[in-house]
Amino acid sequence: MGREIQLGGSQYSIGRLSAMQQLHVSRRVAPIVPALIPVFLSMRGSATFGENLEGLADALQPLADGLAGLKDEDAEYVVGTCLSAVQRQQPTGWARVWALEQKRLMFEDMDMGVILPLVVQVIVANLGPFIQGLLTSQASSPDLATPAG
Fold it and tell me: Which InterPro entries does UniProt cross-reference here (predicted)?
């Protein structure tokens, strides 16, 4: 079971994507990684993401803008694949929120106000170390624009 969050009155568990899913999601979100960096930085170490609506709106705007720039197929792949790693607590146990094969939500009450934060959570949980590595390598690399000597 992954990290649990409360969102929209329901409890969700953020799970792991397979290595191949991580690869394909990262390929598709690569053009929007610069827009996702502020989201990643704002969520790092935040256990209450999704409870602060103002902060949530600010954090989700870069993702929404980035997804808007993707081809429909790529945006659908990213959202569907990310949601396939999410489960929702039910009285009888945990249930997946996305049927990967049918490409559909399993809960009618889920809207973009719940879907986008879940997608962000999955991206940060699964690609966060990769994004962190990019930030660290950029911060520690020498300035290529500075001429030698």
Answer: Phage_chap_TAC_15-like
